[in-house]
Amino acid sequence: MTKEAILAKVNAGEMLPLMEEFYTIQGEGFYKGTAAYFIRIGGCDVGCHWCDVKESWNAETHPPTAVATIVENAAKYSDTIVITGGEPLTWDMTFITSELKKRGLKTHIETSGAYELTGEWDWICLSPKKMKLPTAKVYEKANELKCIVYNKNDFEFAEAQAEKVGKDCILYLQPEWSKRDKMIPEIVEYVMKNPKWKVSLQTHKYLNIP
Prior knowledge:
Elements: H1 3-11, E1 15-25, E2 35-41, E3 64-66, H2 67-75, E4 80-84, H3 94-102, E5 106-111, E6 123-126, H4 136-141, E7 144-149, H5 153-162, E8 170-175, H6 180-193, E9 197-199, H7 203-206
Parallel strand pairs: 2-4, 4-5, 5-6, 6-7, 7-8, 8-9
Antiparallel strand pairs: 1-2, 1-3
């Protein structure tokens, strides 16, 4: 296949820059503890300095892979599929979610919301970042809001983000992993004073699984 043909398929969402795919336990948010198949898509320009998957940022280092192949692999393992990144909404998610739905699979996404929402989703985890704020539609559709707490200033940012999501959106505060020892006590105190929030932890790291 020529480079032009591959590019056309990527632009149409029929191929995606696949970084990795794996079957594991969801470690964060509402579905923590649930078995799920993760599809990590390369490409992200949001630029979080504390990102723990910076190798996902450059989409060119991850081979364009046919969605048909990705879906076939996913269907072997779980009925819950989590698409993450990188920033998956960099790409058109319409085709892959349509194909997953044809298999009767549940589609979840973890996104900063920095790009327009595409695709058909059963669950949207919105994790907004200060550097590139979410679009209005993602705020409206989010099922859970997960705000990462790196320092005390992030509580103010989290409150501003909470004002933009729907009334049924579940609100989570999650310590940035490298700051967890310092920030967990701060988060616990904050949630106890502001019980609309819940605590989220990266439990998969405590369990030493992907």
